[in-house]
């Protein structure tokens, strides 16, 4: 972290978290953020469901909900960027305050509730996306929709021509009853609609499924079977958790999903179990609590082909991205891996 970045973060942390987040996006659009460009090497390059990534470190959905800063983010060192979640119609989300820092825990609690500008605005911005970057979109459903399952396909049909991948997000805890769509029967029907929409796009982009960390082994097995049957390209493990185990921060009692460092162990165990269940049938993306190259490496060795982060940026700034990518290369070289692919799953047993 640079001195200027440290100063900026210090000032941001004096503000309401959601206000600070808005200022961070504005700073990105003004070019006031680290922009080292793609961090890559033969060792770091990854094939993720047919997408050629310069490195396996991605930005998780939620940071750039409305695809407003894709250009600057694509120059920040990420191997891929996921915008969203986006719903068919614009919606305000839940009442503020709805974002809380837990500095003592290096965690974040949010209950945004899919606040976004809607698919029309997102599609217009995605049409101007930076070329050469790998850009995806997290698909969501309107809170008051009469058919939430259909909303995911609607957003994909509208925005899909501008995307490299899409993610079906049925795992947010902040939209009432959304997680019920993770049940086998409901999920199969939802994915059938999404995949039909995908097949109607000019290019058949990969579709990922993002799951919650609060699932049993039986539920994980069911989800993996449904995803495989539907033709999903891979699974993102995991979204935020409802658990509050071991937290110290004053905001620990706030409702919403917990992300950041406290989620690392729980999400990595789910990832490893899913890796065991799928046995290499589909790529996995590891998310939850990554704040260092060592964390990213642990996710890869637990079974992830690629990783995503978000909450750690609140505490470490955007320069963390290139630090993780370069540190990951050093760790792979140290252990004799010529590529990320060689390391995937080699430490899975440690998490089971």
Molecular structure report:
By secondary structure, the chain is α/β, with parallel strands linked by helices. It has a single domain (3-351), classed as Aldolase class I (TIM Barrel, Alpha-Beta Barrel). Helix content is 36%, strand content 16%. The protein contains 12 helices and 13 strands. The protein has helices at 3-12, 17-29, 70-74, 119-126, 148-159, 184-199, 217-230, 264-278, 293-302, 312-316, 320-334, 340-343, and strands at residues 46-48, 51-53, 57-59, 80-86, 99-102, 107-110, 135-139, 165-169, 207-211, 234-237, 257-260, 284-287, 306-309. The strands form 3 sheets. The protein has an 8-stranded parallel barrel, surrounded by 5 helices. Strands 5-6-11 form a 3-stranded antiparallel β-sheet, with no helix packed on it. It has a two-stranded antiparallel sheet with strand order 1-2. Helix 8 (264-278) runs parallel beside helix 9 (293-302). The model has no long low-confidence stretch (mean pLDDT 95).
